[in-house]
Amino acid sequence: MSSGDGLDSELESFRKQWLSDLSTQRGPHPADTAAQSSSSANQRRRQSHSRRHDGSQPSFSSSSARPGPLKRTNGPPSPTAARRALILDEGSDYVGGRSFDEPAPPLIVSSEARTLGSSIDAAAKPNETNLVSALDHYEKAMEKEAEGNMGDSLQLYRKAYKMDHGVERRYREKHFPAGASKAPVAQAPPSSTATSAPSAASAQPAAEPETAPPRTFSELLSGFATLQIEPVVPEVEGDRFLPCPIADLPDELLTHIMHDIAVADVAEYVRLSLVCKRLAYLVASEQRIWRRVCLGPEFGFAGMHYRWSRGIEWDPLSADSEDEQDDEDNSSGAVSDGPDDSAAPSPPRLSPRERAQRRQARAQATTLSLTPSVYPTWKKMFRNRPRIRFDGCYISTVNYVRSGQASTNQLTWGSAPIHIVTYYRYLRFFRDGTCISLLASNPPTEVVHFMTREALRLHRGDTTQNNHLPSAAMRLAHRGRWKLSPPGHSAVPGTRAAGGSAGSGPGAPSGDDELSIETEGVGTKYIFKMDLQVRSAGKATASRNNKLVLSGFYSYNKLTEDWAEFLLKNNKPFFFSRVRSYGLGD
């Protein structure tokens, strides 16, 4: 009896402890707690009775005798299992709907539910254990990023890049291969190994028709001939189209408008081709506009000078100088005034106005004779025939290295120090046949905006008075004049340096690509002369006539009438740079 009473008291104490534990864990549900405690007590009684008959002593502190919530021996029991059971019964109270317009809400909302987050993460980790390669981590990271889980996405990205820094390239190769745009060639599965080679060989010619050769420019242009100017598509589908008055203009009026734009600014006229395909067709095919541009003095060849028009000091030419140039033209045969003009014994002296009209007529006749014999179209003539540009300046950057002198109070690595010397040559041309030449060490940003006639006159002969002005570099500038060689003209032997044109590229088919410049010298008794060639730098589709190659540089002594050549060891070509402050040129 004593043993039975001890067992009953022990069971009663265990029952009270179990009820107290459940009351602390599940206070709002007393009925469930009592039912669960009674069932647990009955189960405990049966286990104790069986162990007593087996001869073993009960141990209620062991983890095997207690249910899941009472696993810990010290401190209050963990409510993990009870809370997990509660979540399974009433999961809607803890997990709400997600709004994709806002960041994902945190799953753990209280300190009591922290173990819920750890349990769910532990349940989700088995999927991440399958991530082996860097590409797997990268793909999983993209999935997390799409879901809005930026924290896990960032961690996976870091793991992927640690494993393989080129994982992004591998992802593109897997999902976006280079040959994905080509249609796959359908092949029948080979029946044997002997037929696999012929089938692969027969599949190769089938892929050739897919890669058609690119269409030429003329083919693309002909496809735009029937297109019309279309109004802008409305932003809202179903809304009415905005009015487009230029689409209703006939081609005659539209061509007249484009003609005026080309005369005002040929660069803006070319940019019209970017508006629509119809304007692109008109810009490329309307030869009447290009003819006006080529024959006009604004941007065309009527503004070029093929003989001296001014003196070196920008003074008008004398009548004797004009007569000398006429005699040179007649003797060389480069320019012909008439059927038998050279046989006239003493031609009458013309006035300056008549001479200008005569030169203009000669230039126009020469330009007309070059189309289509030399240049097929007027557009090709404007693009390929050498000409001087007035809306900027030509700059030559020269760099060379020379050894310096070692200093006794300065440590230098190796031998003597090295000096890198940089200087610039500037050329700006004007429409009246004059130019400005400058040699200075100032960079272009400090010079190009001051290469004007006004700045040159301000600093000419000035040594100290205006040195504080930003345009002080113009005190070293020289006045000069320029001219191009007539079409079909060849350089006079001895006036160019031997091998000066090496590496300058092919010349113009018209033969008028030689530029002559005469400027003031250092003193009053010297004259400098430069012989250059007009070339194009860059790709064939880039800007043209933007390069000047120096082929000879000479000095002329007016007192002794001797020519001396400057052997330029570090000469570099001139490259054109547009200057907005010049406008369209003076």
Automatic annotation (TrEMBL):
PROSITE patterns xref list: FBOX
Biased composition regions of type Basic residues, renumbered to the chain: 43-52
GO biological process, one term: SCF-dependent proteasomal ubiquitin-dependent protein catabolic process
Skewed-composition ranges (Acidic residues): 320-330
Gene Ontology cellular component terms for the protein in this record: cytoplasm; SCF ubiquitin ligase complex
UniProt domain F-box: residue ranges: 243-293
Keyword set includes Iron-sulfur: no
Biased composition (Low complexity): 183-214, 331-344
Domain of life assignment: Eukaryota
Keyword Chloroplast belongs to the record: no
Keywords: Ubl conjugation pathway
InterPro entries per record: F-box-like_dom_sf, F-box_dom, Hrt3/FBXO9_C
Matches recorded under PANTHER family: F-BOX ONLY PROTEIN 48, F-BOX ONLY PROTEIN 48-RELATED
Protein name stated in the entry: F-box domain-containing protein
Species annotation: Akanthomyces muscarius (Entomopathogenic fungus)
Lineage: Eukaryota, Fungi, Dikarya, Ascomycota, Pezizomycotina
